[in-house]
Write a structure and sequence with these properties.
Blueprint: H1 17-26, E1 31-34, E2 37-40, H2 46-63, E3 68-72, E4 76-79, E5 84-86, E6 90-94, E7 106-108
Amino acid sequence: MENEIKEAVPKYSFVTPAQYLEMERAAGFRSEYFDGYVQVMGGASLKHNIIASNIAAKVGHFLEGKNCRMLQSEMRVGSPSSDSDTYPDDLIVWGKPDLEDDKFDTLKAGCDL
C-alpha cells in the first residue's frame, strides 16, 4: 500500500493546567484540556451550529431580566474538580462571573444555586 503510514502514533506529553493555559493563549487555534492532555478542537457541522444557536436564542430569551446571562462557545471554562478546560457550545453564568485571572478569558466552573 503506497499510502500506508509506518510511524508509531505520537505520544503526547502530560502538561499542567498552567502550561495548557499559557499554550492556549499563544496559539492561533483552540484546544481543550482533559486530565493533563490537550486535544485540538475541530470545526463543527452546520447541524451542530444550528442546534447550538437555537438553544442560545431560546434560553437567552428565557433568561431576560434574571441575574444570569447566556454565553456561547468562545468562552473557555475551567473546572478544577475535573481538571479540564473546555469551550462549551452554550453556557449560563449566574450572577457575577468568577474568572480564572486578569486575562478575562477563562471562567471558573461551578455556581451556587
